[in-house]
Amino acid sequence: MRTATGTTRIQHGQLIDGTGRPPIADGTVIITDGRIAYAGPSAGAPPTPSEANTIDAQGGSILPGLIEAHFHATYFNVAALEDLDVKYPVEYVTLLAAANAKLALECGYTAARSGGSLFNVDVWLKKAIECDLIPGPRLAASGREICGVGGLMDWNPDYRKIGMDGLVLLINGADEARAAVRKLVKDGVEWVKTYPTGDAASPDVNNHHTLCMTFEEMHAVVATAHNHGLKVTGHCRATEGIKNALRAGYDAIEHGTFMDDEALDLLLTRDVPCVPALYFELASVERGPEFGLPQAVIDGHQETLECGAESARKILKAGGRIGLGGDYGFGWNPHGQYARELTFFVNYVGFTPLQVIMCATKTGAEILGRGHELGTLEPGKLGDVLVASGDVLADISRLEDRNNILAVLQGGEIKAGTMN
Ligand SMILES: [Zn+2]
């Protein structure tokens, strides 16, 4: 992705640098040739050349570009299972993904880690974004997901002869797990997304206490992925599934819903980040009836919601790392509403606004594997900055409204926002 040339000065705003440190009431950020040269009190800011671009934050907030840590680029108003696999051909899915990527950037998300993609779309989406062909967040791609045969993602009965080829690689045993990862290596992914457990969405045979992969399969995934320099994460709700993942050497945990003390210890020992992706659960409970979700599914989401929130509180309190994002792209939780995750973590889970911004910036960058160049406003990092009107610490929900997004910068270049 190209970076800006010259100097940009962002001023007249409260500076929230993403590290979790208290805000600076009157802050200035100076970006030179795409990288941050200064971020701190306006009083101490060095002079900039007269030809420098100036962005007036209008007394609002200056923060790092947000990072979606569980982004499904290819989901688009999913309301039924077939929307997730066979409804559209890869050509149309690719166009939908490009539209979602543009939307995410317009919402202030300058980077995203894939939570799984149909076909290998996110790998090529990433390439198109990096080549400046289309606008979107800087991506870490996952391609297709891995799940055990008969597990959560294997819902088509055999008589339909649908192999789920576009969505997941279905495996039986460690050898097939290795083969699946090797396929993904050739596809060019960075993260391998797996399904160690089921979900409330499937209450009959793969509910959220069901295991969908064996420890041996998970261990084979990790050994093969790590050998090739890839990272591994997984959809982990059931307690035993979380522990299997952590013992197998997973690099991140998605959801981490039913986390007991032993699982928490395993998580903290290796400082593995967890992405709860919880607002989806509240949306499923609140809007499920409207979309015809069965009561058993809604009840399951309620249990997930409560236990997931409790686990997230425990992780944060114990000093663990939480990434924010998740599962936007369903009919009741559409793309474009990503910042609801932040509001939800303040209002429902009880994080402070400063904590959720750190989770949605610094920790997100670390999950991407790019903590050294993204996620905080510090000298030397890329100029990925979000300028929002008003005080987002006083009212975090301001970030949900695109009218409040004044400027979204990547590498010092304004890409979106009302000032664009
Ligand atoms: Zn997901």
What's the helix-strand series?
Answer: EEEEEHHEHEEEHEHEHEHEHHHHEEE
Rounded to an integer, what's the Rg over CA atoms?
Answer: 21 Å
Largest sheet: 7 strands, mixed
Characterize the overall form. globular
Average predicted local confidence, pLDDT: 96
As a percent range, the share of helical residues equals 25-40%
The number of helical elements comes to 11
Give the names of the bound compounds: zinc ion
> Runs with pLDDT <50, length 5+?
none
- N-to-C CA distance: 18 Å
Question: What fraction of the residues are assigned to beta strands by DSSP?
Answer: 15-25%
* Strand order within the widest beta sheet: 3-2-1-4-14-15-16
Broad structural category: alpha/beta
Q: State the total count of DSSP E strands.
A: 16
Tags for this model:
single chain; 11 helices; 32% helix; 420 residues; seven-stranded mixed β-sheet; four-stranded parallel β-sheet; binds zinc ion
Describe the structure.
With 420 residues, the chain is an alpha/beta fold. It has eleven helices and 16 strands. The strands form four sheets. Strands 3-2-1-4-14-15-16 form a seven-stranded mixed β-sheet. Helix 5 (215-227) runs parallel beside helix 6, helix 6 runs parallel beside helix 7 (261-269) and helix 10 crosses helix 11 (353-368). The radius of gyration is 21 Å and the shape is globular. The chain starts with 6 loop residues before the first strand and ends with a strand. The mean pLDDT is 96. Bound molecules: zinc ion. Zinc ion (ZN) is lined by residues 70, 72, 115, 327.
